[in-house]
Amino acid sequence: MASLELYSKGASVWIPDPDAVWVSALLLQDYSPGDPHLRLQLSNGQEAHYPVGSTSDLPPLGNPDILEGENDLTALSFLHEPAVLHNLRVRFLDYNSIYTYCGIVLVAINPYDQLPIYGEEVIDAYSGQDMGDMEPHIFSVAEEAYRTMTREEKNQSIIISGESGSGKTVSAKFTMRYFAVVGGAAQQTSVEERVLASNPIMESIGNAKTTRNDNSSRFGKYIEIGFGRKGDIIAANMRTYLLEKSRVVFQASSERNYHIFYQLCASRELPEMRSLKLNGPEHFRYTSQGGEMQIPGTDDVADLERTRNAFTILGVQPDQQMELFRILSAVLHLGNVNIQASGRSAERSYIDADDRSLAVFSKLLGVEGPQMAHWLCQRRLAVGGEMLVKPMTGQQALEARDALAKHIYGQLFTWTVQRLNSALRTQGGTTKSFIGVLDIYGFETFDRNSFEQFCINYANEKLQQQFNRHVFHLEQEEYVREELAWSRIEFSDNQQCINLIEAQLGLFDLLDEECRMPKGSDESWVRKLYDQHLSSKPHPHFRKPRMSNSAFIVLHFADTVQYECDGFLDKNRDTVFEELINILKASQSELVAELFQQQGNVPAAANGSVRSGKRATREHKLTVGFQFRQSLQMLMDTLNSTTPHYVRCIKPNDLKEPFMFDPRRTVQQLRACGVLETIRISAAGYPSRWTYEEFFSRYRLLLRGPQSQDQAQASCRQALPELIPDQDQYCFGKTKVFFRAGQVALLERLRAERLRIAAVIIQSRVRGWLARVAYASICWATVTIQRYSRGALARRLALTLRYTKSALVIQKTYRMVVVRQLFLMIRQATITIQAFTRGTLTRRRYRQLVAERAAVLLQASVRMWLAKKAYRRVHAAVVFMQCCVRRRAARRELQKLKSEARSVEKYRELNKGMEVKLMQLQLRADQEARESAALRETLHAERESTGGELEALKATIQKLESQKQEKPPPSPIISEKEVEERRRAEEKAAQEILQLTQELKSLQKEKDTFCKERDDLSARLLEQEKAQEECVQQAVSQECEALRAELDEERRKYQGLLREFTRLEQRYDNLREMSLLTERTKGHRRTDSTQSLSLEPLSPTPLSPGCLTPLSLSPFPSAFPSPEVVRRVSVTSPSLERKLSMWSSETSMDQLMERMDVAKDPAVKMKGEDLAHAYDAVRVANKFLESQLRGQRGQWEEDLEALRCQLSQAISGCSSAAERQELQELVEARERECVRLRRELKELKNTVSLRRLLAQVLPSSLSPEAPLSPSRPKPATVTGLLECRKRDENKLIKNLITDIRVDSALSLPAGLPARVVFLCVRQADCSGEQTQARSLCSAAVTAMKAALKKHSNDIDMSALWLKNACLLHDLLTQHSPKQTLDSDDLVPLTTDLSDLIRALSDLCIQAYQQVLSITEKRLQNIIVPALLESETILGLSASASKLVTSRKRAGSDPRPVGGDAPTMVSVLRELGALHTAMTHQALPSTQMEQAFHQLTYLISASALNSLLLRKDMCCWSRGMQIRYNVSLLEEWLRSRGLQAGGAVATLEPLIQAVQLLQAGKKTDADAQAIFQTCTALSSQQIVKILTLYTPHSDLDERVTLNFIRTVQGLLKGRSDGQPPQLLMDVRRVFPVTFPYSPPPGLHAEQLVIPDSLKISFLRRA
Questions:
Q1: Among 407, 467, 1190, 1407, which residue has the least CB neighbours within 10 Å?
Q2: Helix (H, G, I), strand (E, B) or coil at 739
Q3: 1230 or 862, higher pLDDT
Q4: Does residue 331 surpass a pLDDT of 90?
Q5: pLDDT at 1289 over 80
Q6: Which of 524, 575, 267, 283 lies closest to 406, judged by CA?
Q7: Band of pLDDT at residue 1194, cut at 50, 70 and 90
Q8: 295 to each of 163, 852, 987, how far by Cα in Å?
């Protein structure tokens, strides 16, 4: 009991409640010994009185708020049932955490929902992590078992128990899946896949629907997963316990039989299932008793398909599967066999001969139907040595039928398990250790409990005893390790209950004895139990019910259970008559005969006993109870020889509702599964354990004297006797201080009181200071107010005086303005009148002068126009005549030039083969001449039409002139009447003009209005167009992003396949080396030196250029033999080698003709001499064509210059624009023709490639006597190359790539090997040695790949070969025909190296992946310690130490301390090594940015995943540390200019997670800020961090549930449509791209080749 001082006002206590089991209440007054009751306030605000008779009746105390939601129940200060129940409820409902530690036990609550916490990223996060550092998880237990097994080389066991429906099977599945991922191999049908494939089979034949679970396992199983020396799974074995065979023939209401029966009935319409004669499950007696035919949400047809696929994976053939299904169908038909009673007292029974069910049963099993019908109703007895046949009653026959059905199903179940074990058995290697996963039934108690529940509860008694002793052993080890003076802990041992069941004259012993009796019955067995354990020797765990004489009560450790004795003897015997078994042994079905032949060979393995007429000796060994005790004892021996790990599964409610917590059902299971017993054992000793440093950090304010972290232990030893007077309440160990239950709460109270006193003192000082500050501010405010008031009064008086003066000035000014305006108005009127009068007189005089002047001007203008017209006509005629004469002369000259150009007779004499070409040129020239003539005709027509229009215009002008001349001149005398009329007309016109002007103004206004509307509409249209353009751009950008993402995904898949190919290639090399070693061990055989040289993979022969690398895709795949053939031929017979060379050349010639589209039939008939002559003819023709085209080009250039000179002269002497345009078009046509001919010349130049390809083939096909042929092509003249002779190729590759030392290689200039290889390849290509160029390049690629494998752990060498591979790829790409097509400066390579370029591209990707892989391996184990755990800011974490009392597990590795712990310096050192290596090799910045983008993503994802799974990291102080560590990484990246490639952006999720730890978490504004800030985090990640947030000091508070729900409401819109994502995918790989960058010109003189390379045999060319 806790100290009475803790029962003070405001303390929290737990009181019993009928509905919630326990409810929380607050003390309203202090408790004093002797008080009759406690005044309490319940959570609903009501006041209650709790009666207290003595101090032992006090209610349990509540834990401090800071311990609420702890992930380890043993960390609670008060360890009792209400504290455990409350902590589990808080974690399950508020935090959605289904896993909780309870010491060495993992408590798993079934959520009845799919949670995203079992993906591969979660497995990666838990792999290799300490169990005490991570959040509770089933993977954590699996990892602890795996690490303990590999480290201590000791077998492990994971014991998973719980009620039906609590999630045991699912937990076992995830455990095996974890082992399959962590310790799995890469074979397609590996053992771990077969282990996982066994689950659907065992579920279908061993699981059924019960009232508590839709998929309840009706058997127990123990799976041993065997591991090899490297920690990989190599074997597995399964053992089963106590199959519930009675379910085959009987099911309770709302329950089902085993799933396999319903799956077969649902699939009855399949073609292969029609022979089974199945109907719906409601038509069979064995499947319709429970009334449940279908489970909601399940598909029996799909489940059967999964079961069949699993059988296939495990090697069960389809015909054997159908045999299995026939036996199961026969069991269903057996249940429908109609057995009828006969006789007076129904002492006989019979089966109709035409019973359909019996006929189908007999046909499916291949047995005789009449015999089966006879022995189902008869039995054979041995009486006095004679065999008698006795008929059975109808009830006995039904029991015999049901017993046979159960026996058949039991034998089939046993055979299936044996078949699975044979498939899971190892094929090679030795199992070094194993991990066993025990999925066994938990404690069961129903309204009616029978033999199955008795055996299950007996097994749980044994497991609980083993569990209690193991927990006690761990406690004892802890005390011994800390050298404590301890006394033995008393715990409730259930040995007495176990003795009651299994000891001599126990329940099982008396049951077997009763089964041996001839007339034994359940009633006589119960009477023996009463006599033995109630009358003669009363047992404390055995009782008799008051109202029943056919039942007994056993007081188990978990609960008191009443067992009904009906059926105990029959279920224990589980007998079936021998006659029926003999019939089945004689079955025509091989599988049926095999099932029942095994029974006679291995009787102990059978699930029942066979009863014959002659009683067997020691028959009691065959009872079910005896077999179960044997198997259980074997299981206990296995568990005791291993290190156990416990998982207790809890069913939170019986309604199967997600995240619904029923406290009564939960506490019942906690009592039954031993969790509370663990708590009680821990509470009996010292449950609270602190290291001295943790105690000092938390309670340093309670200590006195000098305080130093180095003197923490001495300070604790000195201060604790003063704080806790009772020395029995604590104990000092070597590294920890131990406390009894409740003492931590007492220390927390003293600490809170000390903090309260300090807070009062601080408050008093602060309040005094605030009062003084307030008084000073009031005085200052008073003086300020007075000053401002006086100033306001003075300003008001000055304003009044200013207003008075202003009024006077305004009056004076106004009067002056009025008088001046009147004067100006009179003056303006006078001036206006005078102006109008003078204007009228002036206009009258002006009109008279204008009339006279107009006539004179009109006559002068007409005469001038006539004179100009005559002059233009004469001038045009003269110019036209000149143009005609000049055009005629120019045409004659043009005809002369064309005739000279068409003269090709001399060319036809030189070479008759060019006639077709010249005819084509002639046709093109004629065509262009015709086009020119057509254009001239069009121009002539246009000129004629223009002349016609001109004549029409001239006629119109002449007509107008004649009309004007005929008009009489105006009369010079104008009468006054006419003047008056003219004046009136002018006035009228003026009025009309005025009116029109007004209308014009109105129209102008309307126009302005319309213009404004038009502008508005235009603006709107522009806005709409802009909006549409933005929409289109947005759609285009989205489509581009989608395409870019698709491209990246394709690149990622390709690079993943390339990585997989590299891995498989490495495995192939390893297997080949192992096979070679195996062959050498069988017997060493000496080989010739030439053979050993030919075996080297880095010395390719010129005969096999296509087989040097697996990635090379040669255009002639079958042109060359395999390297093994070449090796044999080259060693054995030189003549064969020449024939082989001849054959390969001929094959290459055939493929060459196919590629060049040359007919093969005539070419096949040609001999070597014919080919030589043809080659000479083609070579001479090509040379002649080249010289001829060069001469034509020169002549055409001269003609072009002459035409240009003539054109300039014609332009200078010609005044016609039409002729100038015609000559310009003629020149342009000539220029176009020159361009076309220039293009043809370039095409003819490309025919040189044909000559070079022929040079590659023809010399090898000619006779050996003429190796030098005059038809050899002239090589391209390229200088600055390196020449490597054929015999020096292997030496070059070895010295330059394969055998180069690391120090020498790193001292070379960047890319030197690639440059040297390229210059040698280029020299061989220019010399016409395409085979040598290709073989040298292939050897270089293969050697680089081998060098990468050789230096697979050296980052500097990997970066060096990455640089050389990229440079060689760029050089070959730069000089490929595709790249040099548009460039006249570079001479292309004639050798086709496209496949080697692709191989180099893949090699670049492999080298890049190897560089990253080396760095990732180095970073993997230091990311989390350096980024999350290291304390770069000293003293920050110590000032905010958390109340942590959790204990490390036994198997956990201690963390490195002090200078050995990784820090950010370690991370930056590894990144710096990569940056230095890549910088030293002068790799492009884009590659470096991509590499660091990948690495920073790995760092961010690993750190964030660990943060999301570690509650101790989710606090403000740790967030500050992490943010500072991340800032160091950001600064490092920016200092090296790596932020542009997205390296810093990948850290954003981690940065936002740290900001979330540091942000406020109280108000709605804080929630809105979190929603707007944390955009890179998913909704699940944000909620998880808020849930895990734990205050590490009293100044901080937990995040309330209301705040979390507010954030969830804001995030709901964001999470729609997104898959649930908690952890980041650490294995994500970003695709890498290598942009092509043409290298600068390369010459041998530029290379500085050191003498250490020993390649002086290369010659400069």
A1: 1190
A2: strand
A3: 862
A4: yes
A5: yes
A6: 575
A7: low
A8: 20, 121, 109
pLDDT in tens, 1142-1162: 334 344 444 444 444 444 443
Residue 1642 DSSP code: -
Angle formed at CA 1287 by CA 1281 and CA 1293, multiple of 5 degrees: 65
- Rounded mean pLDDT, 1411-1431: 89
| CA neighbor of 223 nearest in space, from 143, 168, 166 | 168
CB atoms within 10 A of CB 475: 21
Work out the angle between the directed axes of helices 81-89 and 663-673 (0-180°, nearest 10): 120
CA pair distance 1483, 1538, nearest whole angstrom: 13
Query: Which SS3 state, helix, strand or coil, does residue 1572 take?
Result: helix
> Distance (Å, rounded) from C-alpha 411 to C-alpha 587?
15
Give the tens place of pLDDT for each residue, 1213-1230: 544 555 556 656 666 666
Q: For residue 1160, what are its two tokens?
A: 């093969």
Percent of the chain past pLDDT 90, that is, above it, reads 23
Q: Mean pLDDT over residues 1016-1024, rounded?
A: 85
Quote the CA–CA distance of 443 and 458 in Å, as a whole number. 9
Q: What are phi and psi of 281, to 5 degrees?
A: -65, -20
Quote the pLDDT of residue 838.
Answer: 92
Q: How many CA atoms lie within 13 A of 1335 on its CB side?
A: 23
Is the separation of the CB atoms in 59 and 702 below 8 Å?
no
Pick the closest to residue 1105 from 1403, 1395, 1407 (CA basis).
Answer: 1395
Number of H helices, E strands in the chain: 49, 27
Confidence of residue 1078 (pLDDT cuts 50, 70, 90): low
**What is the spatial distance between Cα 228 and Cα 644, in angstroms, rounded to a whole number?**
20
Is residue 1471 pLDDT above 90, yes or no?
yes
Closest CA to 1398 of 1110, 1657, 1077, 1632: 1110
**Mean pLDDT score, 952-972:** 67
Alpha-helical runs (H) found in 967-1104: 976-1082, 1089-1094
Q: Report residue 1530 as tokens.
A: 């950001």
Partners of residue 1175 on adjacent β-strands: none
Which amino acid makes up residue 1334?
R
What phi and psi values does residue 388 have, to the nearest 5 degrees? -115, 150
Distance CA 1058, CA 1051 (A): 10
3-state SS, residue 545:
coil
Q: Give residues with Cβ within 8 angstroms of 332, minimum separation 6.
A: 261, 264, 265, 278, 284, 286, 287
Other beta carbons less than 10 A from residue 1099's beta carbon = 17
1613-1621 long-range contacts, Cβ below 8 Å, gap at least 24?
Answer: 1614/1579, 1615/1578, 1615/1579, 1615/1580, 1618/1578, 1618/1579, 1619/116, 1620/116, 1620/1580, 1621/116, 1621/1578, 1621/1580, 1621/1581
β-pairing, 105-109 vs 12-17, is unpaired
> Alpha-carbon distance 869 to 875, whole Å?
10
Determine phi and psi for 661, rounding to 5 degrees: -115, 115
Mean predicted lDDT score pLDDT of the chain:
79
User: Could you tell me which residues come within 8 angstroms of residue 578 by beta carbon, excluding any fewer than 6 positions away?
Assistant: 380, 610, 611, 612, 613
pLDDT at position 727 is: 80
Largest Cα separation within the chain, whole Å, is 180
**Residue 1525 phi/psi, 5° resolution?**
-65, -40
Tokens for 1414?
Answer: 């080396």
Q: Is 1141 exposed, middle or buried (0-12, 13-18, 19+ CB in 10 A)?
A: middle
Interhelix angle 1312-1326/1355-1374, nearest 10 degrees? 30
d(CA 1250, CA 1246): 8
pTM score, whole prediction: 0.66
